[in-house]
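Researcher: Re-running this chain for the archive, since the previous output was lost when a drive failed. Same request as before.
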Amino acid sequence: MQINRNNSLDPISISNWRWTYFLDETIKKFSFFEPRSYPIDNDFLFRESFFGSSSNPKKVILETWGFKTEKIRQARCACLQAGEITSIMNLVISPFNNYDLPFFGADFVTLPNGHLIALDLQPAIKDDVVHTQYVLGKLNSLHANWQSKLPSGGDIPLEARQYFSSAFLWTRIPLGEEGDQLICEIIKPAFNDYLNFFFDLVSNAKRTSKKRSAMVLYGQKKYMRYRAKKDPARGMLQRFFGNIWTESYINNILFDLQ
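Model: Regenerated structure tokens:
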């Protein structure tokens, strides 16, 4: 049944969604910028499907929340709950290219074998010192503090490394009491530190030159094309919602700057 969500700023309605705290903190922080709804078609604001056996079907719900501001072109959060086995938050905040700012990215995924946690301020032009030096000078210390308290997430593909900063927080943690404790005591404050730092960057950002704006835009589009092409959620979304809807969602909502 369609939930009454009329625009992207309407509250997420998924009951017992594991990652509610993190989206709520994002909403609180960026309310300072007087956010406006980001245009998202109703078919992507709320989507419901069923999986499993016909005798015991399981419901999957996906809702998309988003906003835009004077400096943020698009902030969007894909929120998915599939029964008791999968809970996902995929949050990306994309600044306008006329500000020399990184992306903010948080990908929190619960699977039957554990939680995958990825958190970063991802550079649009990683090899440009002007774009990265100030950010990483402060962010690396946050990363060193929190990553030291978490198990490693393991290797990431070589091709993907160019799209992450040196402060990429990446971990795999178990389900159950141990994982819940790590989420509460480590992941929540780490998320808040990264989010607060990004908020400060956005607050203080000044418009840059046309030349640098063009460089940032090139980097942003390259990042978005890569994310759309390599989105690891594609197979899961296709199983839940079909190929046509999934490709439209990935390319027109999640990574729409291509």
